[in-house]
Predict the 3D structure of the following.
Amino acid sequence: MLELLKSAKNGEHASNLGALIAYEFTRKYDIPSFIVDPVVVDELEPLARYTGHPIFRRKSIFHALNQKATARNAAAQLGKNYEDVNLIVVHMGGGISIGAHRKGKVVNVNNALDGDGPFTPERSGTLPLTQLIDLCFSGKYTFDQMKKKIKGAGGMVDYLGTNDAMTVQERIRNGDKEAELVYKAMAYQIAKWVGRMAAVLKGEVDAIVLTGGLAYDKEFMVRWLTEYTSFIAPILIFPGGDEERALAMGGLRVLRGQEKAKTYWENVLQF
Ligand SMILES: Nc1ncnc2c1ncn2[C@@H]1O[C@H](COP(=O)(O)OP(=O)(O)OP(=O)(O)O)[C@@H](O)[C@H]1O
Ligand SMILES: CCCC(=O)O
């Protein structure tokens, strides 16, 4: 695992550092370390794995740690167990993931890292395929530049020159119509993905759960998402993230014998 993460063979991401840092603590203090709900948690149902062409495979990459922790908190707020509810969890940070949680499993979710889903503060989300192929072969851009359009320099930051939603909100308050249109387009695309996940859950949705940094924005983002999606289910809001606590609780569940740690199996990542 450590070698694979160092090589970034499956993608560059800050979370690649997690296991490496944990391993240093293990060595220094002679204590166990665990990985809890990493971005590659994969509970997709078989139907969700189809892409539309046999050589492409859908990967489950999303904000699993915060999605799972927030879903548990939301279930508790509903007075139920996570394993007994259906939720659509919308994590809205620099990247955005929309997961269909059916009775404790994330059976469908967009690949939040790799050009799938709504556009986000710093990612393009799904792009028109043929235009993308044409641009790749146009000779105008390098491989790295094209990759950057999808992750890092795409989405809101490319439209408005900032990935900071709070700056955009201030611009809207000051009458910037372009900023309003782009920010609302992002809400519109997120809402469309909520609709998809409602279909996956066959309309049996106990709640739509909004979380991540953008969920603090009640004035615009939360209001627009409520307008578009509240016909599906009640909306619960858990702004920010619960990641550090979720990591600690995951480790504690194993140390207390409430959960068994799984063994990492490298072959599952060979695709
Ligand atoms: N209090 C707030 N009010 C409004 N928007 C906020 C607030 N806090 C953060 N945001 C916005 O949320 C977005 C990023 O959120 P967050 O900090 O959750 O992302 P991240 O942790 O960098 O990314 P990710 O969640 O994808 O790992 C930014 O555009 C930021 O401006
Ligand atoms: C999809 C993994 C978390 C992120 O958005 O970076």
